[in-house]
Amino acid sequence: MTVLRRPPLSRAARKEERTAWVFLLPWFVGMAGVTLGPMIASLYFSMTDYNLLSSPQWVGFENYAKMLDDPRLRQSLSVTFLYVVLSVPLLLAVALALAMVLNRGIKGLAFYRSVYYLPSLLGASVAVGILWRQVFGTEGLVNKFLGLFGVQGPGWISNPDTALYSLVVLHVWTFGSSMVIFLAGLRQIPEQYYEAAALDGAGRRHQFRHVTLPLLTPIIFFNLVLQVISSFQSFTQAFVVSGGTGGPSDSTLFYSLYLYDEGFGRLHMGYASAMAWLLVVIVGFLTAINFYFSKRWVFYGDGK
Amino acid sequence: MTPLKAAAPAPSPAPAPAAHRHRRAARIRARLKHVVLIAFGLVMVYPLLWMIASSIKPDALIFRDPSLLPTKTDFSHYADGWNALSHPFGLYLLNSAIVVLGALLGNLVSCSMAAYAFARLKFRGRAFFFGMMMLTLMVPVYVLIIPQYVMFSKIEWVNTFLPLIVPKFLATDAFFIFLMVQFFRGLPTELDEAAKIDGAGYWRIYFRILLPISLPALATTAIFTFIWTWNDFLSQLIYLTKPELQTAPVALRNYVDATSGASWGSLFAMSVITLIPVFIVFLVGQRYLVKGIATTGMK
C-alpha cells in the first residue's frame, strides 16, 4: 500500500527533468558556444575570403575550387596518406605481437607493460619531437648504431627522401596504448577455447589463427579506426621535427601543418576552413570504408 | 596399483630424460623470451635515457659518446637552459601548471555533471542529446580551431589563459563524459533509490554518493587531462603569443628556433624538465591509466 503515499509521478518526473537540465547546463552552453556554433561558422568561413582583419567576403565555392589545383594541398595529402598507410599497420602489428607475448602468463607483466606504454604518453610532446631531431640527425643515435656495422647513414631529417620515415618510426614507437587495448581484449577470450582447441590437436599457430585472431577482430578493428582518425590529424611532431615548415622540400608537410600555415601563418581563414571541411569528408570517408570492409573480416560471434 | 603407468606406451627409450629435456627446453624458451623483451624495451627507452644522459654531459661529448654513463658530468646545461629565453623557464612551467589545473578542475566538474544527467536522470531527448555528444567525439579539431580562434580574438581573449580553460568548464571533452557515463551506469541504481527514500535530493545523491564511489573514473579523467593538457601544443601555440604567457612546450619550441641547435645540452635539459611532470603522473596513476585506456581506447 506504499503506492498511495508516493507523490504524483508527473510532478516527480518534472522535477527530475528540471534537475537534468541544470546538470546539463554547462554542456549545453559548451555544445552551442564552443562546438556547434563554431562548426556552423566554419562552414560559413569556408565560403568566404577572410583574413581576420576585415570582414569576411562571400566567395561561394571558390575556396573548394581552389583546392583542386593547389599543388601544396596535393603534396600534403600524399604525405599524410603515406604516413597513415605506413605507420598504422606497422604500429598495430607491433602492438598485437607484443600483446600476444605478454599475455601468456609472463613474469613481470606490469614492468614490461609500463616500459612499452611510457613512450605513447610522451610521444606527443614537444620534448620528444626535439629528441627525435637528434636521434635521426646526421650524427644522431640511429647513425651511430648503423656505424657499428660500417654503414654511413644519411642525415635522415635533412633529406627529403627519408624525413617522413623518421616520423613514421616515431609514431610506431608509441604503439603502447594500442598494445594495452589488445591486452585487455586478449584477456576476454575464455581459456576453455584454447583448451578445446588443444584437445583437438591444434598447435600454437593454429590456435592463433583459429581462436585468437577471429575473436580479436573487433578489437583490431576498433584500434584501426581510432588510429586512422588520429594519425590523419597528427600535428605537433611534424611541426617540431620540420621546424614548423613541413620541410625539407615539403616532404613532411602534413595536412594539419599546411592547414595551420594557411590559417594562422598567412591568415587565409576562409581557405583553411575549407581545408578543415575536406578533412571531415576524408576522415568520414575512411571511417566509412573501414566499417564497410569490416563486415568481411570482423567477427562478432554468434551468427553475426 | 599404477594403472596410468601401465597404460603408458612402453618402458623402452627412457621417458624420464625426455620429459626432463622438454621442461628444460620450455625454461630456455621462457628465458629467451625475457631476453628479447628486455632488449626490445631497452631499444624503446634508449632515446629517452640518452636524452637524460646528454643533458648532464659537456656539449662536446654528446655526439661523440652515445653511452648512457657520462664519463664527465656537467650540470651547467640546466642553469643555462633555465635562463636562455626572455624569462626564466620557471615562468613557463608555472603557466603550464595554471592551464593544466584549470583544465583539470573544469573537466572534473562539468563532465561529471553532464555524465550524471545522462546516466542517472530521465528527461525528454536524452537519447538524442547523448547521440549528439558522442558525435562530437569525431569532429576533427581543425574544424573548430579556426572559428574558435576568431571568436576568442573578437572578445579579446587571445593572450589570456581563458580560451584554454573556460571551454573545459563547459564539458567540451566528450571523452570524459562518456567515460563517466559508463562508470555511473555500472553502479547499482539501488544506491540512488535508497538515498531518495532517506530524503536526499539529486544534488546530494550526485555529490555525496556517486562522486565518492566514482573516484577511479575521476582519477582517470584527472590523469588524462593532466597529460594531454601538459603536452598540448597547437592551442597553446595560437592563443599564447606573449612571451610572459607562454607555456613550457611553446617556450621549448621557441628555444629550438632561438638557439638553432647551438647547445643541445641545455635544450635537452629543458626537455627533460618538461617531461618530468608527465613521468611523475605516469608513475602515480599507472593503474588508472591502464584501466582507462583499456576500457575507452583513449591515449
UniProtKB/TrEMBL annotation, chain A:
Do the record's keywords include Disulfide bond? no
Instruction: List GO terms (cellular component aspect).
Output: plasma membrane
How does the protein's chain sit in the membrane according to the entry? Multi-pass membrane protein
Domain ABC transmembrane type-1 positions: 77-290
Lipid biosynthesis as UniProt keyword? no
Task: Give the location in the cell.
Answer: Cell membrane
PROSITE patterns xrefs: ABC_TM1
- Residue intervals passing through the bilayer: 21-45, 81-102, 114-132, 163-186, 211-229, 274-293
Which keywords does UniProt give here?
Cell membrane, Membrane, Sugar transport, Transmembrane, Transmembrane helix, Transport
Its chief place of residence is membrane
Record-linked SUPFAM superfamilies = MetI-like
Which GO terms fall under biological process for this protein?
transmembrane transport
Q: Which family does it belong to?
A: Belongs to the binding-protein-dependent transport system permease family.
Q: Which PANTHER family match?
A: ABC TRANSPORTER PERMEASE PROTEIN, ABC TRANSPORTER PERMEASE PROTEIN YESP-RELATED
Q: In its UniProt entry, what is this protein called?
A: Multiple sugar transport system permease protein
Q: Which organism is it from?
A: Streptomyces caelestis
UniProtKB/TrEMBL annotation, chain B:
Chain ranges passing through the membrane? 32-53, 92-116, 128-149, 161-184, 205-230, 262-284
Q: Which UniProt keywords apply?
A: Cell membrane, Membrane, Sugar transport, Transmembrane, Transmembrane helix, Transport
- What's the protein's topology in the membrane? Multi-pass membrane protein
Per the record, its GO cellular-component terms are: plasma membrane
Q: Where in the cell is it found?
A: Cell membrane
**Gene3D superfamilies for this protein:** MetI-like
Look up the record and give one Gene Ontology term from the biological process aspect: transmembrane transport
Using the UniProt record, give the first listed, main subcellular location.
Answer: membrane
Where in this chain does the record put each ABC transmembrane type-1 domain? 93-285
What family is this protein classified in? Belongs to the binding-protein-dependent transport system permease family.
Q: What name does this protein carry?
A: Multiple sugar transport system permease protein
In its UniProt entry, the species of origin is given as Streptomyces caelestis
